[in-house]
Amino acid sequence: MPDMDELLDQVRKQTEEVQRIQRSVEAMEVKAHSRQNEVTVVLRGDGRFTSIDIDPRALRQYDARNLSEIVLEAVNNGLQKLAEASSAKFAPVIESAKSIEA
């Protein structure tokens, strides 16, 4: 059985790793599109959107209601991509924590 100092050292190292990964996630940029690429969004790892670009043809082709649905599609796609990328970055720490518990 590991002693208390070893456990505390492991916790400290994991905490530092989580903080490093969190900074990495916050620095990420994710780009996503609507299904037919009428709208492109870019968001940062902290969840802030840095741009939303709408194809000028979409402005002529769709009414406001349909265009808003397309924008929401792109935004939700971006949030999903961000969640997947964040999970992938944290996966090693989660697996490491599981092995310590076992």
Automatic annotation (TrEMBL):
InterPro entries: YbaB-like_sf, YbaB/EbfC. The keyword S-adenosyl-L-methionine does not apply. Keywords: Coiled coil, DNA-binding. One of its GO terms (molecular function) is DNA binding. The keyword DNA-binding applies. It comes from the Bacteria. Residues 4-31 form a coiled coil. NCBIfam families: DNA_YbaB_EbfC. This is Nucleoid-associated protein, YbaB/EbfC family.
